[in-house]
Amino acid sequence: MYVCICHALNDKKVKAALNDGATTPAAVFRHHGCQVQCGKCVPTVRAMAADHRATCAQNRAQAASQDHVPAYGVAAE
Ligand code: FES
Question: What is the value of pTM for the model shown?
Fold first, then answer.
């Protein structure tokens, strides 16, 4: 699905930029060597970045909770 018609950026290209560390629409455009032109795609890119951040935060929280190993098997004295 095309997100930005001006630069032919599709959702895969936007996600690639987000996965490489872009956190804002401007950073997504910089990642692909371009700048915002008409701006119609900015709300969509911003929403995709917010979703990406939320997903990353969820994944970090889940990973952190899995890092905590309960002390099962430790004999109580
Ligand atoms: S649609 Fe993205 S800058 Fe125009």
Answer: 0.81
